[in-house]
């Protein structure tokens, strides 16, 4: 279907990328239908918000138990729509369950009204701050981690007392439908969590539908369009976009661990991971040994359709030519392929490709590849590695392998999250905020910051007693402000 024709269609199918078999059919929701869903969600939110933290936690815990019990059912839907290996789908759901528990358990502690000091000059006031639900949150998600990524917003937004209207990627509507229908089993009263499906236009309609916040995860280009659409109604946005994460290998690193991590970080999920390793910078003195280890590990990996394959297919067909162009561009600029090469691209699969000595102006270094490819460049020292790692527009995640200087080097990386002596592990720690800077977007999901992203801050002062001085009143005496200044000087004497 061409763009214009598909946007006007009433329904669309989701396909298994391994076989092109149709695995589901879903409606293309119009702007009117999206708006109606948001209106229903607004009513539902009044009820959900009114339940309070304890009852919401009870419901979210029940949903978590259901997800646990039927984990393989959802994993099956994820495999069918993305083609990813079964254990990768299961692993993704481990994260979903853990984050859901954290959000439900910690929402009250993080968001409830708490006292803050009023300071000496305002000591007649009791001051509090509280984080109240925003209302209806729109969530637009990608296809690569069709459960974990949107749930990073959905779990936290629901725990904070919001209703959610979710628009999954057109490639993975079945995963979205499964999540929404199972939530309704534990919360049957109101459509607190609802689904709209369709193409980009349905997502664009959600941006303009009057939601109180829009949480977007996807590419930087679409992120900019989402932000522009939301600007029309001053709808706040959270934008989680792509990355070009670097892994740095210091001279004293555990080379086997670093090589295993680089290959897993770069190739798992067929490289379709926003915080996947795309670039490696290795200190010259250990580079040869490191490259040999990576070559041995990556050379053994095979993509395939079977549930036990190392890698699945490239889920989004149009991505295959991008991966191919990055490989070709690097080779034409003088890079060397130590694993795979141009011939590794066999749609819908891409076999692992490891490129060494890749010029820094190559597309494989500057643009997100989103395929099972790794670049490895040698550097004189870690300072050069940091400079090159930070030399891209993206700033999502990163990894450092170093025995002595891991924490020190982590601070030098221009990235929202860093793993020291591992990869991607920060995504599995629910208490840690997740998000990037630069072209990787802004705002945070996960952790206390992730809960507060879906809340409006309210500051309240309550007068406990009438202050002897009343400077903020037209009834103040002529000497009131002078007295106040005397007190001020006493208080700020040092
Ligand atoms: P896209 O940007 O193509 O799409 C993301 C979502 O936006 C989809 O649901 C898509 O719908 C929707 N969309 C498309 N056009 C519009 C529009 N004009 N207005 C509103 N919504 C729209 O990304 P992908 O799905 O290809 O996902 C891959 C990208 O996501 C990669 O760049 C990856 O790095 C990033 N990502 C970032 C993560 C992070 O947390 N930082 C995590 C996971 C992925 P449809 O599919 O129907 O077109």
From TrEMBL:
<dbReference type="InterPro" id="IPR016161">
    <property type="entry name" value="Ald_DH/histidinol_DH"/>
</dbReference>
<dbReference type="InterPro" id="IPR029510">
    <property type="entry name" value="Ald_DH_CS_GLU"/>
</dbReference>
<dbReference type="Pfam" id="PF00171">
    <property type="entry name" value="Aldedh"/>
</dbReference>
<protein>
    <recommendedName>
        <fullName>Aldehyde dehydrogenase</fullName>
    </recommendedName>
</protein>
<dbReference type="GO" id="GO:0016620">
    <property type="term" value="F:oxidoreductase activity, acting on the aldehyde or oxo group of donors, NAD or NADP as acceptor"/>
</dbReference>
<dbReference type="InterPro" id="IPR016162">
    <property type="entry name" value="Ald_DH_N"/>
</dbReference>
<dbReference type="InterPro" id="IPR016163">
    <property type="entry name" value="Ald_DH_C"/>
</dbReference>
<dbReference type="InterPro" id="IPR012394">
    <property type="entry name" value="Aldehyde_DH_NAD(P)"/>
</dbReference>
<feature type="domain" description="Aldehyde dehydrogenase">
    <location>
        <begin position="7"/>
        <end position="460"/>
    </location>
</feature>
<dbReference type="InterPro" id="IPR015590">
    <property type="entry name" value="Aldehyde_DH_dom"/>
</dbReference>
<keyword id="KW-0560">Oxidoreductase</keyword>
<comment type="similarity">
    <text>Belongs to the aldehyde dehydrogenase family.</text>
</comment>
<feature type="active site">
    <location>
        <position position="240"/>
    </location>
</feature>
<feature type="active site">
    <location>
        <position position="274"/>
    </location>
</feature>
<dbReference type="GO" id="GO:0006081">
    <property type="term" value="P:aldehyde metabolic process"/>
</dbReference>
């Amino acid at each position: 279907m061409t763009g214009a024709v598909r946007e006007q269609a009433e329904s669309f199918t989701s396909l298994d990328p391994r076989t092109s078999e149709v695995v589901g059919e879903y409606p293309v929701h119009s702007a009117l239908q999206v708006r109606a869903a948001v209106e229903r969600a607004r009513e539902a939110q009044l009820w959900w918000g009114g339940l309070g933290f304890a009852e919401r936690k009870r419901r979210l815990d029940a949903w978590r138990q259901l997800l646990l019990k039927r984990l393989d059912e959802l994993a099956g839907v994820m495999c069918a729509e993305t083609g990813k290996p079964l254990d990768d789908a299961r692993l993704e759901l481990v994260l979903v369950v853990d984050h859901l528990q954290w959000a439900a358990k910690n929402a009250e502690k993080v968001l409830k009204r708490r006292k803050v000091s009023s300071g000496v000059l305002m000591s007649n006031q009791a001051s509090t701050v509280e984080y109240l639900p925003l209302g209806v949150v729109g969530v637009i998600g990608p296809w690569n981690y069709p459960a974990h990524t949107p749930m990073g917003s959905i779990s936290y937004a629901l725990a904070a007392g919001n209703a959610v209207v979710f628009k999954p990627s057109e490639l993975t509507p079945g995963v979205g439908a499964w999540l929404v229908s199972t939530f309704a089993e534990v919360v049957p009263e109101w459509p607190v969590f609802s689904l709209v499906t369709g193409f980009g236009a349905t997502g664009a309609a959600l941006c303009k539908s009057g939601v109180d916040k829009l949480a977007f995860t996807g590419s930087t280009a679409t992120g900019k369009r989402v932000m522009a659409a939301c600007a029309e109604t001053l709808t706040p946005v959270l934008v989680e976009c792509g990355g070009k994460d670097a892994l740095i290998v210091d001279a004293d690193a555990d080379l086997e661990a670093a090589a295993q991590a680089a290959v897993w970080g770069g190739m798992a999920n067929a490289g379709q991971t926003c915080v996947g390793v795309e670039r490696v910078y290795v200190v010259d003195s250990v580079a040869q040994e490191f490259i040999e280890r990576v070559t041995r590990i990556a050379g053994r990996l095979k993509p395939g359709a079977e549930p036990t394959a190392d890698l699945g297919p490239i889920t989004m067909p149009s991505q295959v030519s991008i991966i191919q162009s990055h490989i070709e561009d690097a080779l034409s600029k003088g890079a060397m392929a130590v694993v795979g090469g141009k011939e590794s691209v066999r749609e819908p699969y891409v076999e692992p490709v490891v490129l060494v000595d890749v010029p820094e102006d190559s597309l494989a270094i500057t643009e997100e590849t989103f395929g099972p490819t790794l670049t490895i460049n040698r550097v004189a020292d870690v300072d050069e590695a940091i400079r090159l790692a930070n030399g891209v527009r993206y700033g999502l995640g990163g990894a450092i392998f170093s025995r002595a200087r891991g924490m020190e080097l982590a601070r030098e990386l221009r990235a929202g999250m860093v793993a020291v002596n591992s990869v991607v592990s920060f995504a599995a720690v629910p208490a840690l905020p997740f998000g990037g800077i630069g072209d990787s977007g802004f705002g945070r999901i996960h952790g206390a910051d992730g809960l507060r992203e879906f809340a409006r801050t309210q500051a309240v002062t309550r007068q406990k007693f009438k202050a002897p001085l009343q400077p903020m009143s037209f009834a103040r005496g002529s000497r009131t402000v002078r007295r106040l200044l005397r007190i001020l000087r006493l208080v700020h004497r040092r």
